[in-house]
């Protein structure tokens, strides 16, 4: 039971990262590598403020703002300097490594004796259940706000920019602003995820963002394959559940004896298989038709 609670809790905390990756990868149709820098940026910002005596809520809000600023930087590199989105994300990610070191002052910042959002809330539960309840509440709030926002005219314009930028530009919408706004929202969510994961784990580390883009993609792809993409609401639910399923898969393979050092390799292979599923299904269907 403790393992199940811990797995679901971590899945919920990382679901915010998955939603952020979904916004760029599916909604904007951009592979944004900024998340590998904005995730530890959120953790570093929150950890530094917490160790300075700030409220956990203020720390999370500051982490969100810092993540948004990193998204704006990538957006401006892409839209104003015409740097390809993939390369712009890499440049921002590399720059954020030094920024994160500057913020923390060292490579690792412990939070073991510091109040976090999981200790200040008077829920009367043990740590595992507290993380689960707080994570569930935050994810529900974020999912509802995203569903509402992307149903507005501005949110629809962002979605249309990813679907058909030429059409939306012909309708008088500034696609550059929509791209910057989408990257801002995405990296803000990723930074919140980093702040929550750091508080849950009890430390912030400058290298904790390595591989986060693959984790986010794995959650998105697994969710889409298992739970479908019938509507935007369904996509949000699928991404959240995909994050939990991904954590469950990781927990299972670790219980079966896989060395932790092989987790990144396993995740990469899992994402590659998931991304190739449409092609595999198409070839399988063609094979079945040919056998008839």
Enumerate the spans where pLDDT stays under 50 for 5 or more consecutive residues.
none
**Major sheet: size, sense and barrel closure?**
2 strands, antiparallel
Helix content estimate? over 70%
User: Under the CATH scheme, which architecture would be assigned?
Assistant: Orthogonal Bundle
Q: Give the percentage of residues in beta strands.
A: under 5%
- Total domain modules: 1
The succession of helices and strands, N to C, reads: HHHHEHHHHHEHHHH
Numbering strands along the chain, what is their spatial order in the largest sheet? 1-2
- Oligomeric form: single chain
Radius of gyration: 19 Å
Question: What is the total tally of β strands?
Answer: 2
CATH class reads Mainly Alpha
* CATH fold-type name: ABC transporter involved in vitamin B12 uptake, BtuC
General form? globular
Number of helices: 13
* Mean pLDDT over the full residue set: 91
Distance between the termini: 49 Å
Structural class: mainly alpha
Task: Describe the protein in words.
The structure is a single chain. By secondary structure, the protein is mainly alpha-helical. It has a single domain (2-266), classed as ABC transporter involved in vitamin B12 uptake, BtuC, CATH 1.10.3470. Helices cover 77% and strands 2% of the residues. The protein contains 13 helices and two strands. It has a two-stranded antiparallel sheet. Helix 1 (2-27) runs parallel beside helix 6 (127-149) and helix 3 (56-79) runs antiparallel to helix 4. The protein is globular, with a radius of gyration of 19 Å. 46% of the residues are buried. The mean pLDDT is 91.
């Amino acid at each position: 039971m403790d393992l199940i609670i811990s797995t679901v809790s971590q899945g919920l905390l990382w679901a915010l990262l998955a939603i952020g990756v979904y916004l760029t990868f599916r909604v904007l149709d951009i592979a944004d590598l900024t998340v590998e820098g904005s995730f530890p940026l959120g953790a570093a910002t929150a950890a530094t403020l917490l160790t300075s005596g700030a409220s956990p809520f203020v720390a999370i809000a500051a982490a969100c703002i810092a993540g948004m600023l990193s998204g704006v930087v990538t957006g401006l590199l892409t839209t104003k300097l015409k740097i390809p989105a993939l390369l712009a994300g890499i440049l921002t990610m590399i720059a954020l490594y030094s920024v994160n070191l500057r913020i923390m002052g060292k490579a690792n910042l412990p939070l073991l004796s510091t109040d976090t959002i999981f200790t200040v809330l008077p829920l009367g539960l043990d740590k595992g259940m507290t993380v689960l309840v707080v994570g569930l509440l935050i994810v529900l709030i974020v999912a509802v706000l995203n569903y509402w926002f992307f149903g507005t005219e501005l949110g629809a314009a962002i979605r249309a920019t990813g679907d058909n930028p030429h059409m939306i530009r012909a309708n008088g919408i500034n696609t550059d602003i929509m791209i910057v706004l989408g990257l801002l929202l995405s990296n803000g969510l990723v930074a919140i995820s980093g702040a929550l994961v750091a508080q849950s784990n009890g430390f912030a580390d400058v290298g904790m963002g390595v591989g986060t883009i693959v984790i986010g993609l794995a959650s998105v792809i697994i969710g889409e394959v298992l739970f479908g993409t019938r509507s935007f609401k369904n996509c949000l639910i699928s991404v959240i559940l995909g994050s939990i399923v991904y954590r469950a898969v990781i927990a299972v393979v670790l219980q079966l004896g896989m060395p932790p050092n092989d987790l990144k390799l396993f995740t990469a292979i899992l994402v590659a298989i998931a991304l190739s599923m449409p092609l595999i299904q198409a070839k399988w269907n063609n094979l079945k038709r040919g056998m008839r």
